[in-house]
């Protein structure tokens, strides 16, 4: 065979192989398309590379990149992905409809360098095969539902630069090598360990860290780690950000932490560290320090703080600081100082040279006895619950409020808005109506705490636009808004990105922007620290194809016009007929539907969705209550009048009737109907029905004869409660809340747990009541609800108050206050003193019964004779921990109380046969439980009246 023939055969063979590979890419792209909904409309044709399919990028006619951010893909990632043998980049971020497990076939992509699945809906375990990607440098799987352990095989990814597994449900310990298998200690070239907001547990292995590592960010916050501070962490001298907060780490903080001289942000808060405060003198670059809520030995504010001249934020809440605050502290360039809940005392002296940088100083719950503001003093200072404020009306003696700075929003560039945008359009900073791409930027460790600093956000906007422009993205402008700090101290900012050249983005533009943010191409200013972007689905794509033939015949125009006229005429006739039928239907509905006049536009929401609650007419309840007579009236509350009544079957009811002249309570009315109609438990008050008729709003409950727990504790009911009965009552209330959290569908957060919302029936069984402020947990917010702060001061969860993020642990905190009130019979706040603080200061675990004799309600006997009291107090104090992750669940509380009762010789599983008649007095009925509305949002403006209430 001649050389030419051989060469021709080789070329033909190569051509056949290439053509075969290209056609395979097409086949498998179509397979992906078959598994997904909402794929780009231009995924048609025979050559995805030549036809430039959206999100598909090719090199030499082979698919090397798939980037499809925020286009609302729905489906699963099938094993077909493994067939893209040349694939280097896979980014499917911000498609929450992508669910199911991550296919083990992902390990076949041997050329893959970037795998990004941020903000999707994937779940199940991470496959071991993920460690079979030798070229992988960037791995972001955060903000999904992945569970199970971290695969040790990830340690094989020796080129890995970025590892982000945060915000999942991963559990177990961090894997390290054992001689036969890899571990994360092999990742000496990795710069980022982002594992926050998971369920990882056990000790942080000392073997994980070494001097060979080049880590910059170690983010382990909000997990379940325990054991000691890892000694070897001090060897990683490249560290810039360290977050170990919100775990259960204990023991001393190793002294070699001072070797981390490059640290900018250090979070050690909300652990169980003890011993002396660590010396951080060497951290001269430190900007942000948080050591709050640990058990360090009592000590003065350390002298080494004055050497940290880069420090702008100091958080040392509840760290057993004592003595006077040194004057030198106020000459530092600090902006935010939180020293609340310590033992600081004496005179607060700012000195003559205090820094004008200081914006917030929170010293709530200390023992400061004297303070005179210096001339020109402008710092936001809080000395609430200090002796200096016992008789003072000064502004700094009022309870702390959330920051009152105006929420930041990117200003418009001298726009004069002469046109009105469509309802789903937004007016951009550059004065254009368009459809922006939106999402949230979450900064996991910012080095500043002043959320009102406009200059900071301006620098962020500028740097982001420079990045978009340098990457040639179709962006006209961006807008930042509503910067807030969430419950794990992340800075969350809303981001809107506006298109250039058109009013909306195409899919290619969205994918490019998403990729620049998901793969960290964009680098924010240093002060913002590590971030993650979570984009929303973009629903404004213009998919209509342009017409190829613009010439239209006159005959066609005439035909279309005639057809249109006929269609309009038919529509008019149909409309008139429908209007008449609608009138008939509405009249029939008004006769049959209890919600015919329910008007969502008046702030009442949509019609209630009910399960079993009975609808009463006004006439029926009029008969039941003897025409709402004065004899049936059992009192009045802010909501309206409450009447006792009796149904024809003899059942006693309480009818809560809203005032007709006021719309107050409309949402609460609907809320209680919906929630109570779905809950059925012996320790939750039963909703018999409701009335929405004749302009009336009424709720009909079972009648609870013995009033509230508060009435009995205060003596107003005439019922004396011994220790046994109090345990029975608190167990019943705990079971009611446990039912709401764990068994109700959907789960319910009560939001206003207190002794006036625990009712006692004829056998003094507890029933949880008043659901006007309650919130259901939907599928989208199983961890928390961001909502306006409402509730009752004294019982309110401080974490919820500060973050506006409501969780089931908020109820646990309130229940802990109820437990303390149960043993003391004191109001949560009396004469400016908070019951938690009083117990903490009185408790001495070295003495019998914790030295609580002086605060125990004498009705239940001397403290030495109360079985289980010490354990009861321990449980209560765990419930009122400052942060939710350190509090027990209600199911754990129920178990603890049952154990206490068994130790006290009381069978917790037997219902009480006693009635209120068995105790010293009967219910007087002076204050009926249904009068307790408490449907108000907490406002600092009326805290004084609350504090004065006895």
Topology:
Blueprint: H1 3-35, E1 36-37, E2 56-59, E3 62-67, E4 74-76, E5 89-91, E6 97-100, E7 114-116, E8 121-125, E9 138-140, E10 145-148, E11 162-164, E12 169-172, E13 192-194, E14 199-203, E15 217-219, E16 224-228, E17 241-243, E18 248-251, E19 265-267, E20 272-273, E21 288-290, E22 313-315, E23 322-323, E24 336-338, E25 343-348, E26 360-362, E27 367-371, E28 380-382, E29 426-427, E30 433-434, E31 437-443, H2 454-470, E32 475-485, E33 491-499, H3 507-518, E34 531-535, H4 554-592, E35 614-615, H5 618-624, E36 633-636, E37 640-646, E38 652-658, H6 666-676, E39 687-691, E40 698-702, H7 709-714, H8 723-743, E41 748-749, E42 758-760, E43 766-768, E44 775-776, E45 785-786, H9 798-803, E46 805-806, H10 808-824, E47 829-830, E48 833-834, H11 835-842, H12 869-879, H13 890-903, H14 943-948
Parallel strand pairs: 3-5, 4-6, 5-7, 6-8, 7-9, 8-10, 9-11, 10-12, 11-13, 12-14, 13-15, 14-16, 15-17, 16-18, 17-19, 18-20, 19-21, 21-22, 22-24, 23-25, 24-26, 25-27, 26-28, 35-39
Antiparallel strand pairs: 1-4, 2-3, 29-30, 31-33, 31-34, 32-33, 36-37, 37-38, 38-40, 39-40, 41-44, 42-43, 45-46, 47-48
Give a concise summary.
With 950 residues, the protein is of the alpha/beta class. The protein has 14 helices and 48 strands.
CATH architecture of the domain at 707-948: Orthogonal Bundle
Q: Please indicate the percent range of residues in DSSP E strands (runs of 2 or more).
A: 15-25%
Helix content: 10-25%
* Helix count, DSSP H or I runs of 4 or more residues: 14
Distance between the termini: 109 Å
| CATH fold node name of the domain at 707-948 | Transferase(Phosphotransferase), domain 1
Mean pLDDT: 83
Number of strands: 48
CATH level 4 superfamily of the domain at 707-948? Transferase(Phosphotransferase) domain 1
Note poorly predicted spans. Answer: 5-20, 544-560, 585-606, 916-950
Globally, the shape reads globular
Order of strands side by side in the largest beta sheet? 2-3-5-7-9-11-13-15-17-19-21-22-24-26-28
CATH top level class name of the domain at 707-948: Mainly Alpha
Described by strand count, sense and barrel closure, the largest sheet is:
15 strands, mixed
What class do helices, strands and sheet pairing give? alpha/beta
The value of Rg in angstroms is 33 Å
């Amino acid at each position: 065979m001649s050389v030419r023939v051989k060469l021709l055969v080789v070329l033909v063979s190569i051509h056949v192989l290439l053509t075969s590979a290209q056609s395979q890419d097409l086949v498998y792209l179509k397979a992906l398309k078959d598994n997904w909904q909402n794929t780009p409309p231009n995924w048609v044709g025979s050559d995805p590379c030549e036809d430039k399919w959206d999100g598909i990028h090719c090199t030499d006619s082979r698919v090397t990149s798939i980037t499809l951010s925020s286009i609302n893909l729905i489906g699963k990632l099938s094993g077909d992905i493994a067939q893209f043998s040349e694939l280097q980049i896979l980014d499917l971020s911000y498609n929450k409809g992508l669910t199911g497990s991550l296919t083990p076939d992902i390990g076949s992509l041997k050329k893959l360098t970037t795998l990004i699945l941020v903000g999707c809906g994937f779940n199940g375990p991470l496959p071991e095969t993920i460690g079979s990607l030798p070229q992988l440098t960037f791995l972001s799987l955060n903000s999904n539902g992945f569970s199970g352990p971290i695969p040790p095989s990830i340690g094989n990814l020796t080129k890995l630069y970025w590892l982000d597994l945060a915000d999942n449900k991963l559990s177990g310990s961090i894997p390290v090598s054992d001689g036969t298998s890899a571990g994360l200690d092999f990742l000496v070239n990795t710069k980022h360990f982002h594992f926050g907001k998971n369920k990882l547990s056990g000790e942080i292995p000392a073997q994980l860290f070494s001097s060979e590592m080049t880590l910059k960010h170690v983010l382990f916050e909000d997990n379940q780690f325990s054991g000691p501070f890892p000694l070897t962490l001090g060897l990683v001298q490249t560290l810039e950000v360290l977050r170990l907060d919100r775990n259960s780490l204990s023991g001393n903080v190793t002294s070699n932490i001072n070797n981390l001289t490059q640290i900018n942000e250090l979070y050690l808060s909300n652990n169980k560290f003890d011993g002396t405060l660590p010396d951080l003198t060497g951290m001269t670059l430190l900007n942000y320090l948080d050591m709050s809520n640990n058990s360090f030995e009592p000590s003065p504010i350390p002298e080494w703080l004055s050497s940290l001249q880069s420090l702008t934020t100091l958080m040392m809440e509840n760290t057993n600081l004592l003595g006077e605050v040194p004057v030198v502290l106020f000459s530092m360039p600090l902006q935010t100082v939180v020293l609340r809940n310590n033992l600081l005392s004496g005179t607060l002296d700012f000195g003559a040279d205090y820094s004008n940088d200081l914006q917030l100083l929170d010293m709530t719950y200390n023992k400061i006895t004297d303070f005179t503001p210096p001339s020109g003093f402008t710092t936001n200072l809080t000395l609430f619950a200090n002796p200096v404020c016992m008789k003072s009306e000064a502004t700094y003696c009022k309870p702390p409020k959330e920051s009152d700075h105006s929420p930041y929003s990117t200003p418009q560039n001298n726009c004069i808005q002469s046109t009105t945008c469509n309802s789903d359009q937004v007016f951009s900073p550059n004065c254009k109506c368009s459809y922006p791409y939106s999402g949230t930027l979450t900064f996991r460790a910012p080095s500043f705490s002043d959320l009102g600093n406009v200059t900071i956000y301006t620098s962020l906007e500028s740097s982001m636009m420079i990045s978009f422009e340098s990457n040639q993205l179709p962006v006209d402008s961006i807008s930042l808004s509503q910067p807030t700090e969430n419950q794990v101290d992340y800075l969350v900012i809303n981001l809107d990105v506006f298109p250039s050249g058109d009013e909306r983005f195409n899919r290619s533009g969205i994918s490019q922007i998403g990729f620049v943010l998901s793969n960290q191409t964009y680098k924010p200013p240093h002060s913002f620290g590590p971030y993650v972007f979570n984009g929303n689905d973009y629903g404004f794509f213009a998919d209509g194809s342009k017409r190829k033939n613009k010439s239209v015949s006159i005959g066609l125009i005439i035909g279309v016009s005639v057809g249109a006229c006929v269609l309009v005429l038919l529509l008019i006739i149909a409309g008139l007929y429908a209007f008449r039928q609608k009138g008939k239907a509405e009249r029939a509905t008004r006769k049959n539907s209890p919600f015919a006049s329910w008007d969502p536009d008046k702030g009442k929401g949509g019609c209630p969705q009910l399960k079993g609650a009975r609808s009463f007419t006004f006439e029926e309840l009029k008969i039941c209550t003897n025409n709402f007579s004065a004899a049936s009236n059992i009192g009045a509350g802010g909501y309206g009048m409450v009447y006792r009544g009796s149904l024809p079957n003899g059942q006693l009811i309480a009818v809560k009737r809203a005032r007709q002249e006021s719309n107050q309570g409309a949402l609460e009315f609907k809320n209680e109907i919906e929630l109570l109609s779905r809950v059925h438990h012996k320790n939750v008050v039963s909703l018999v029905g409701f009335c929405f008729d004749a302009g009336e709003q009424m709720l009909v409950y079972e009648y609870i004869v013995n009033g509230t727990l508060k009435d009995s504790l205060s003596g107003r009911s005439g019922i004396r409660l011994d220790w046994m009965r109090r345990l029975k009552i608190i167990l019943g209330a705990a079971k009611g809340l446990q039912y709401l959290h764990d068994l109700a569908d959907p789960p319910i957060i009560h939001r206003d747990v207190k002794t006036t919302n625990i009712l006692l029936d004829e056998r003094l069984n507890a029933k949880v009541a008043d659901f006007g402020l309650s919130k259901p947990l939907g599928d989208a917010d199983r961890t928390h609800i961001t909502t306006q702060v409402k509730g009752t001061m004294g019982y309110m969860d401080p974490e919820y108050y500060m973050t506006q993020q409501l969780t089931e642990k908020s109820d646990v905190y309130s229940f802990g206050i109820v437990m303390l009130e149960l043993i003391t019979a004191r109001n949560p706040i009396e004469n400016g003193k908070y019951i938690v603080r009083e117990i903490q200061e009185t408790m001495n675990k070295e003495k019998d019964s914790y030295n609580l004799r002086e605060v125990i309600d004498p009705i239940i006997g001397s403290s030495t004779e109360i079985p289980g009291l010490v354990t009861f107090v321990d449980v209560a104090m765990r419930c009122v921990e400052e942060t939710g992750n350190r509090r027990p669940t209600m199911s754990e509380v129920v178990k603890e109380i049952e154990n206490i009762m068994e130790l006290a010789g009381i069978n917790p599983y037997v219902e009480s046969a006693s009635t209120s008649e068995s105790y010293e007095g009967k219910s007087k009925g002076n204050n009926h439980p249904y009068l307790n509305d408490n449907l108000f949002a907490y406002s600092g403006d009326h805290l004084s009246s609350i504090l004065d209430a006895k």
